[in-house]
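To the team - guanosine-5',3'-tetraphosphate complex, inputs and output below.
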Amino acid sequence: MTLEKEVASRKTFAIISHPDAGKTTITEQLLLFGGAIRQAGTVKGKKSGKFAKSDWMEIEKQRGISVTSSVMQVEYDGFQVNIVDTPGHEDFSEDTYRTLMAVDSAVMVIDSAKGIEPQTKKLFEVCSMRGIPIFTFINKLDRDGREPLELIAELEEVLGIDAYPMNWPMGMGKGFLGLYDLYNNRVELTHPELNGDNDFLPLNEDGEVDGDFEFKKSSIYDQALEDAQLLVEAGNEFSEEKVAAGKLTPVFFGSALTGFGVQTFLDAFIDFAPSPSAKKTEDGELIEPLEEQFTGFIFKIQANMNPAHRDRIAFVRICSGEFTPGMDVTVTRSKKKMKLSHTTQFMADNRETVRTAVAGDIIGLYDTGNFQIGDTIFSGKKAVQFEPLPQFTPELFNKVAAKNVMKQKSFHKGIEQLVQEGAIQLYKTYHTGEYILGAVGQLQFEVFQYRLLNEYNAEVTMTPMGSKIARWIDEEDLDPNMSSSRNLLCRDRFDQPVFLFENRFAMNWFADKHPDVELKSLL
Ligand code: G4P
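Output:
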């Protein structure tokens, strides 16, 4: 296949959702369509789409320690679909946010009983900031949930994005008859056996189904027709450009658990989700995916993913050219040249050695300390540096110290390596040189403590400092006397001065007192 065709066949996306909305379940379904879960007995009862739990659990069990679930590749309908996992609440972190820098679109899964939940909103905002297309799947229609019109209104109000329902549920819970599918001009039925064994029936010119079918006897059908009419007349207009710009989200309904509506969603997703596009460098130049020169950037580093190997893997999103094993590349930051011979590609069932990979693909490089998050690598002579990855302002802070002074060395080594992974940020107090950790979520601290002990044999004490507001200032504005009991002056690991304010009041007070000092936040 030519490079052009290869790149055009890539669809790289992440699923964003609040825990329990059904991300894992829908991922299973997508892997299933792509044949990535293909062992006999994996799938029980085709109609219900119910999985044999034990088989999936084997894969699930490896989550977090295994590469395999970080990026999943499946082939579907001639496309190579790359699903990049965003860790759920258990390890919600900067890592989760940064993963969204490596994808070309996002699928937002919403529980129909709950609507927009806090984590969905946070992740949505990061996608929105990048202007990437967002596709919405409203899940769990096999249960009673909220009214679909109300959910659409909430989506638009809370997230500030226009919504365009591609299909519309006919009922829900026990009365879930199927989907009134405006995009495909058909209805899709949950109970084909009651309707002449039809999974799908076409709509006539008036938007109705011809013929005498069981589902049409229900008032639910009439209600769906009425709703659909309302949507056509009063709803948003569909615009492919707006979808591409992340200003309009196509909305789909279904039930991941029973597998209903998932393929209908996937087919339309494939139609509209973008293939890899050009990426901006630091100098504002655009690197096209079809350029011959190989380029990519590192968006995540994970240490010791496989305890048996004690390896570190740097995840690279390829932006242009073609990757071939053994190729020579340069790391822009350090100017270090290296041969990429130890690489891995991600499949749902095992790690496979990468053969060729193109823009949109994600490869893993075994790392011995050469890479940092945000690094660009390139082949050939012309140095390329992509725009820096955003850093996210941490909200929670803990003081950290080694319990045993004899173990200082492993403590420092562990901290340095884990901080380099980017899941947690490190600060040093300006006056006393104590270590402070900052993170987006509480669980990061526990994971950090656990890993320091298990991987570096360093026991630490953590003293929670609660939530603070972190604001950076310019070096030339720094006066150590600005520090008071309500703001703690620190330096970050790049030596930049940063204040940790007790609360918004303390920050405003500071701003009033030092009007010339600019207080900067990350994202
Ligand atoms: P997550 O990755 O987003 O956290 O969600 P996950 O897929 O694990 O789903 C969370 C729970 O919601 C699971 O139930 C799952 O079976 C259920 N679920 C997912 N999709 C649907 C759906 O379409 N309909 C219904 N009714 N339930 C759905 P659980 O009880 O927490 O776990 P389990 O005991 O079923 O494994």
